[in-house]
Amino acid sequence: MFNFTFDEEAALRQLGLENATPETKAMVTERLHAQLDKRVGVRIQQELSNDELKAFAHASEKGDDQAKAWIAARFPNQEAMYNEELTALVGELKQHADTVVEASKNLQ
Predict the structure, then answer these.
(1) For 24, which of 20, 50, 81, 103 could close a Cys bridge (C-beta 3.0–4.6 Å)?
(2) Could you give the count of Cα atoms lying within 13 Å of 31 in the half-sphere of its Cβ?
(3) Are 12 and 18 in contact (CB under 8 A)?
């Protein structure tokens, strides 16, 4: 939903996946984006009051653009949130990078 962009190739290098198959790279970057959206969404939700959650739901009913504008107005630091979560997520995934590469080899 948030459409945060990051250097996917740099993230893959940090994970040791720069030589992975294109399919594995696509799978990992897709998961990174999904997890980042989820994690930042949870952080934002935790910071909102019940009234703000209702206002956000109302903005969401008007479409993604309205919802994104609503969030951006209230969380100008959302890019910093993404960067923090990206750093944490890459750190967590580094522990499992070898498993991902091996699993992707079995899919071929």
Answers:
(1) 20
(2) 13
(3) yes
Please write the tens of the pLDDT for every residue from 42-67: 999 999 999 999 999 999 999 888 98
Between CA 101 and CA 62 the distance in angstroms is 41
Q: What share of the chain is helix, strand, coil (3-state, %, to 5)?
A: 80, 0, 20
Render the burial of 29-50: b for 16+ CB within 10 Å, e for the rest. Answer: beebbebbbebbeeebeeeeee
The ranges of the chain with pLDDT < 70 are 1-3, 97, 100-101, 103-108
The encoded tokens of residue 70 equal 């609503």
